[in-house]
Design goal:
This protein has 213 residues and is an all-alpha fold. The chain is built from eleven helices and two strands. It has a two-stranded antiparallel ribbon with strand order 1-2. A hairpin with a 2-residue loop joins strand 1 and strand 2.
Length: 213
């Protein structure tokens, strides 16, 4: 029995031509939909994918590679920026450090002995610069805008200077440098009391003559 005869026997009222010409129901996604979804997934920036890209690059990185990683990193929310690998984060923070090339980034993520990997990727300027930056015509920026602990501007942190950003609710102060430990110890001692002069006692022989007289 042919296919046409079987269809006609089951339902004589069915239009045979419409049955044969109707397209089969589509159960899979449209052509190219999976590819576009895959591209979208690949384009998502995460701290782990950023670090994997960094590991795949030859070291040291050129400025163009650093800029490419940085532009993707700042697209992340601040919390996710903090979870970027410390080695990579230090490189991205160093991008905005002023005073180069004298300030060199070491392998431990330190610049002039300061650990910078936990600083903001995008430096935030103080609303009103501190006196140190004003006097020296420096850019006054937070090292880390949000977080715990005392904050200084970046230039005062590098210069180990007292930082009192104007317009802040509480001034930020640190002990000033002293020339030596001895000077510091002496500054903790109470001031010496001035001694009043006492009359010199007379010799014993003279005291006896006075009593005999």
């Amino acid at each position: 029995m042919s296919e046409l005869t079987a269809i006609k026997a089951l339902s004589p009222e069915v239009d045979i031509l419409s049955v044969l010409s109707s397209p089969e129901p589509q159960t899979s996604a449209p052509l190219g939909a999976e590819d576009s979804a895959g591209e979208h997934e690949i384009g998502v920036v995460t701290p782990l994918r950023l670090f994997n890209r960094y590991k795949a690059l030859n070291k040291p990185l050129c400025q163009e590679e650093i800029e490419d990683l940085y532009q993707d990193a700042i697209k992340l929310p601040p919390k996710e920026q903090e979870s970027i690998d410390e080695e990579l984060r230090a490189i991205l923070v160093y991008r905005n450090i002023t005073g180069k090339p004298t300030r060199v980034l070491g392998k431990s993520g330190k610049v002039e002995g300061l650990y910078i990997a936990n600083w903001d990727l995008v430096p935030v300027p103080y609303e009103r610069p501190c006196p140190h930056c004003l006097r020296n015509n420096l850019t006054c920026q937070y090292e880390k805008r949000h977080g715990f602990g005392r904050k200084k501007c970046r230039e005062c942190r590098f210069g180990n200077a007292t930082c009192c950003p104007q317009g802040q609710s509480e001034p930020i102060t640190t002990p000033r440098r002293r020339e030596s430990d001895a000077e510091y110890i002496n500054s903790l001692r109470p001031p010496k009391r001035m001694r009043t002069s006492q009359p010199t006692p007379a010799p014993v022989s003279e005291a006896l003559n006075v009593q005999d007289g």
